[in-house]
Amino acid sequence: MWPVLTVSIGIFIAQAVYSAVTNSSLTKEQKRNWKYYSLIIVLHIIQPIARLTGRIKHGLTPWRVRGEIAGLRSFSFLRTQTLLHWNEAEWKGIDTWLELLEASLVQAKIRVKRGGDFDCWDIKAASGLFGLAKGILTVEEHGPNKQYVKFRYSTVMSKAGLTIISALLIVSILAAGEHQLPVASFLLLLSLAVAYKYFYDAVTVSNSITTGFASLSKNVESSKEEKGTVRLSVKESRVPERQPSEVE
Q: Is 168 inside a domain boundary?
């Protein structure tokens, strides 16, 4: 592996030198001094390292986790869940409830997709590499301005994640059969790490949906208070009737 490492580092440095020589705006006097080129070469080398560090540190990576942090109360993701919400504040259509739920999930930085006319789901949410859930919403009418909102969702098992875990376990077993214990141990630990990531993403997306649906009641109450405030302000700002003057 040492020759491969040496060649890769050499290509990296050669690209930095080539970029510094061809793409730098230096005067003729500055071009004669190699300290300017040295500084530009160092900056070309630091820039991708700083970018990679920022991506890993601030979660700008493909394996980033968004949404509510996974908790023990969300470990029921293996079975289908039904969330309920009783509303007496104001009547809303199904599209409005879906918009509120979608806004709550987007606010939690979850990737959300709305279902089409021919899909068997209304909302699909995803988090991380393997976390995916689909749900359908319905509303029961119970008289004027009384609704029973129900959202049924289930976590979708990622086939790619199961394939990766299974492949690593099979290769680990084969390596153990060939008495290659270091290789078998490393592949076993890698499969366990992928399995942990697999279940963590599933629990995270399930917890995000539960929290987002629970926030519907808060959104309804806040919108009700805002409307009451607007009505009060309109009532207070009403122009008083003009009194007849003494001349009239």
A: no
